[in-house]
Design a protein that fits this description.
The chain is α/β, with parallel strands linked by helices. 36% of the residues lie in helices and 25% in strands. 38% of the residues are buried.
């Protein structure tokens, strides 16, 4: 029988605003892999903050290695025995990979050389191949995650929390990470992932939360996935109101012809009215190149961009918006909203970049308030953006795009850092773009996200277009 590593019973965890779980329960056994599925992004972020030692913990009963401990003692254990790995790097950029791996271990001999030898030993032990004398800035995202995993192994971390890996690693990269995890047999893992194949395939137990309550922990092979999906989808996205829809048959809206930049080579694509093009990238170079191109930050070395039958140059998001091209970044609820503004003012500010005299025409504000109340929630226009839930923020971002009525929409990793309900809002919004004859280009990191969307697919590897078979090959 596996020993219990960490136990919490009726513990309060909350942020500085007093929001959180009033009676949080958790039981993690050694050498297990636990998935945690949350009913909202706020719940998932709170659990992430808990494991990152960034929230208030009080009350209830806490046990570690079957011994009762205080919340203060737990904070020390977070530092010594636990670690969190996510999209943000924790490596020190000024020292080589080997020294990052051995940072908290002191080996004899010349420090740098000893570190390289010891680090290389651990890499070989875990089946990882790359040079440890490289600097962190030279690593790909996957390599950086692997280095952080290896460092945790070297430091004898007992619990590793993996945050939304499927949001920024490809399928091939995820498989490589999983193979390394399987070699770390003495380590316990917690996966904070959205509802999807990964959390069911990697976990042997799954904890479910909804409405700030823990609903139980279940063996993954006993779970009714369809029933759980319905249970967590408590606020399914409603269809957007049919206003401002364009008519006309599909035709080419935007085309990139033989584009070469510092990151991309000979990229050619075209998207027509009401079409969706999914660009699925295998590596960081391709992601970076497409993002720079989409957001008007890439210098063209050769090739041309044709927009509405005219050759154009992209030069920044603001200029693109004026041309009728909208850019939606990853995690837009945090990056594309003004947290201290009222919702109606945030929308007015955004639309005024396309219509400079908007603030001087009260009837426009009245129409915007009416649309916000219809699309999201009655009375939301006077709320501050910071008061909105993740679902409301997601709906607000896409409602702003629909009000602006662009001809082309660029979406960067639309399913990154979303809960199940935010994902449904995103899917419905993209479908609405299509219904209104907008050309939609979606930048994706893995095939799991691609399966959610219709449309054409373009695969990129090392900045070059490849066919599907080459894309999935290692």
């Amino acid at each position: 029988m596996k020993k219990k590593l960490l136990g919490l019973q009726d513990v309060m965890i909350r942020n500085s605003s007093g929001i959180g779980f009033q009676k949080f329960c958790l039981e993690i056994h050694q050498r297990d892999t636990y998935g945690i599925l949350c009913g909202s992004i706020e719940e998932r972020n709170m659990i992430f903050s808990f494991f990152s030692n960034q929230c208030e913990v009080s009350g209830g009963r806490i046990t570690y290695n079957n011994k009762n401990i205080s919340a203060r003692e737990l904070a020390g254990i977070f530092w010594s025995d636990f670690t969190v790995i996510g999209e943000e790097s924790k490596l020190i950029n000024s020292i080589p990979v080997a020294e990052n791996i051995c940072l908290k271990k002191k080996f004899g001999g010349v420090r740098q050389k000893a570190c390289e030898i010891k680090a290389q030993t651990y890499l070989e032990r875990l089946g990882v191949e790359f040079k440890t004398n490289r600097m962190p800035g030279e690593l790909s995202v996957k390599e950086r995650v692997l280095v952080e995993l290896i460092r945790a192994f070297v430091e004898d971390k007992r619990l590793i929390i993996l945050m939304d890996l499927s949001g920024f690693l490809t399928d091939v990269e995820l498989n490589e990470v999983y193979q390394v995890m399987r070699q770390m047999q003495k380590v316990t893992f917690v996966l904070l992932e959205p509802f999807g194949k990964l959390v069911f395939d990697w976990s042997n137990r799954l904890m479910v939360t909804r409405d700030w309550q823990v609903n139980g922990c279940f063996h993954t092979d006993l779970i009714d996935k369809e029933g759980l999906f319905s249970y967590l989808s408590i606020s399914r996205a409603q269809a957007y109101k049919n206003y401002g829809m364009e008519s006309g048959s599909p035709s080419e809206v935007i085309a990139f012809q033989h584009i070469t930049t510092a990151e991309l080579q000979n990229l050619t694509l075209q998207v027509g009215k009401g079409e969706i093009l999914n660009i699925c990238c295998l590596d960081e170079r391709s992601i970076r190149g497409v993002r720079q191109l989409m957001f008007g930050k890439a210098e063209l070395l050769s090739g041309s961009i044709i927009y509405q039958n005219r050759e154009v140059r992209f030069s920044g998001v603001h200029r693109l918006r004026q041309k009728g091209i909208a850019c939606i970044v990853a995690a837009p609820g945090e990056a594309m909203l003004q947290p201290n503004m009222r919702v109606a003012d945030d929308v007015m500010l955004d639309l005024s970049k396309k219509m400079p005299m908007l603030w001087l025409k009260p009837r426009y504000r009245k129409n915007i308030v009416q649309k916000l109340n219809e699309e999201i929630q009655e009375g939301i226009s006077e709320c501050r953006v910071s008061e909105l839930t993740g679902v409301m923020k997601q709906k607000l971002v896409y409602t702003k795009i629909l009000l602006a009525a662009p001809k082309v929409v660029f979406c960067e990793r639309p399913f990154f850092n979303v809960d199940l309900n935010m994902r449904e809002v995103t899917l419905e919004a993209i479908k609405e773009f299509q219904r209104r004859n907008m050309a939609v280009v979606v930048l994706l990191r893995n095939t799991r996200d691609m399966e959610l969307l219709e449309g054409k697919v373009l695969y990129l590897r090392n900045g070059c277009p490849v066919d599907a078979s080459e894309w999935v090959s290692d």
